[in-house]
Amino acid sequence: MNGHFISFEGPDGAGKTTILQAMVDHYRKRLKDQLTITREPGGNPISEAIRSIILDKENTEMDSRTEALLYAAARRQHLVETILPALQQNHVVFCDRYVDSSIAYQGAGRMIGEKAVYDMNLFATEGELPEKTIYLDVPSELGLKRIMTNRTDDVDRLDLEKLDFHQRVRDSYLKLAKEYPERIVVIDASQDLETVKGDTIKILDQVIK
Ligand SMILES: Nc1ncnc2c1ncn2[C@@H]1O[C@H](COP(=O)(O)OP(=O)(O)OP(=O)(O)O)[C@@H](O)[C@H]1O
Ligand SMILES: Cc1cn([C@H]2C[C@H](O)[C@@H](COP(=O)(O)O)O2)c(=O)[nH]c1=O
């Protein structure tokens, strides 16, 4: 089997974590030890340490460009230490967020500029992109409602941003999906969970043969 790099993207509360876990449950038997599950920011000790700085609710002073640089730094380390070695061993890599998150959240959400953030990430990643990106799309109000009402884990610094921030993030994702239709597949994540799972499996079955 060849390695496959698959990312999962979406606004906060879209259901990425839930769907990614469902995909692990679905494909684990088929892939056995050829499956790597990882996340951004994070995935290894250095990138997880950067994650805790970025998402700490106490860090209200953090400048937007500092934030963008930290995400890119975490991504660089994650790529060279975790993703590329797994692909070299022909693993399927399920990655919770990647470059599209920075374009949407820092480029559009923080209004640094999508192109500027893309260019900075080109330096960080040397152009390495996922083969397929599952973009789980929900209206921002629904995503935020899910987070505030259902979640038991910590609400982080970005979850706490206002509605217009999250709307800019969603609009940017939808723009990216139009720009890269071969790579980014939009799934309507406002549907019930079983339907979202089924739609995701249909796409991934075309990649993981
Ligand atoms: N299709 C769905 N229908 C109803 N509830 C859902 C659906 N998908 C996820 N949820 C619920 O919404 C909440 C948020 O889901 P989840 O943590 O998977 O989102 P997320 O996209 O990973 O969020 P974040 O990016 O902020 O970590 C959870 O309680 C989950 O059970
Ligand atoms: C990779 C990446 C992430 N973010 C934001 C998106 C979320 O609000 C958090 C990560 O938390 P999750 O619960 O693990 O999804 O960070 C971002 O703004 N930019 C990025 O590049």
From TrEMBL:
Binding site residues for ATP: G10, P11, D12, G13, A14, G15, K16, T17
Recorded superkingdom: Bacteria
Cited CDD domains: TMPK (cd01672)
Stored SUPFAM superfamilies: P-loop containing nucleoside triphosphate hydrolases (SSF52540)
Thymidylate kinase-like domain sequence ranges: 8-197
Example GO biological process: dUDP biosynthetic process
Gene Ontology CC: cytosol
Catalysed reaction equations from the record: dTMP + ATP = dTDP + ADP
Annotated InterPro entries: P-loop_NTPase, Thymidylate_kin-like_dom, Thymidylate_kinase
GO MF assignments: ATP binding; dTMP kinase activity
E.C. designation(s): 2.7.4.9
Keywords (A to Z) from UniProt: ATP-binding, Kinase, Nucleotide biosynthesis, Nucleotide-binding, Transferase
Function: Phosphorylation of dTMP to form dTDP in both de novo and salvage pathways of dTTP synthesis.
Family named by the database record: Belongs to the thymidylate kinase family.
PANTHER family xrefs: THYMIDYLATE KINASE, UMP-CMP KINASE 2, MITOCHONDRIAL
Protein name (record): Thymidylate kinase
The organism of origin for this protein: Pediococcus stilesii
